[in-house]
Amino acid sequence: PLSRYPPLINDISFWLPSETYSKNDFYDLARTIGGDLIEKVVLLDEFTHPKTKKVSHCYRIIYRHPERTLTQDEVHRVHQAIEESAVRELGVEGRF
């Protein structure tokens, strides 16, 4: 059953490192860090820069706790940890 508590939605975008990147790696990383606080991760947009040919992904992460209302401050800490881990572990270049 869905939680009756409201979701908090945050987006994250970054430049992809190379052909070795897989969006499943990002999904796994986000769920590992966010755990049960993450209800859904969706690839929202894919953009290729016309001059540099670099590719950017934008993901929407929906946070929701099943038993209480989350604060933006709580979610911000988790979201920041996801950003830092994506840079460190996936080699992306943040656009945040």
Give a structural overview.
This protein has 96 residues and is an alpha+beta fold. It has one domain (8-95): Ferrodoxin-fold anticodon-binding domain (Alpha-Beta Plaits, 2-Layer Sandwich). The protein is 32% helix and 31% strand. The protein has 2 helices and 4 strands. The longest helix is centred in the C-terminal third of the chain and has 19 residues, at 72-90.
Which key phrases capture this entry?
96 residues; alpha+beta; Alpha-Beta Plaits; four-stranded antiparallel beta sheet; 2 helices; 4 strands; 31% strand; ATP-binding; ligase; phenylalanine-tRNA ligase activity
Q: Tell me, what is the CATH class?
A: Alpha Beta
| Form type | elongated
Rg from Cα: 14 Å
Q: Mind telling me which CATH architecture this is?
A: 2-Layer Sandwich
Mean pLDDT comes to 93
- What is the CATH topology assignment? Alpha-Beta Plaits
What percent of residues adopt helix (DSSP H or I)? 25-40%
| C-alpha termini separation | 33 Å
- The SSE order reads EHEEHE
| Class by alpha and beta content | alpha+beta
Give the full name of the CATH homologous superfamily: Ferrodoxin-fold anticodon-binding domain
Proportion in β-strands: 25-35%
Q: Which regions contain 5 or more consecutive residues with pLDDT less than 50? A: none
Number of domains: 1
**Number of E strands:** 4
Number of helices: 2
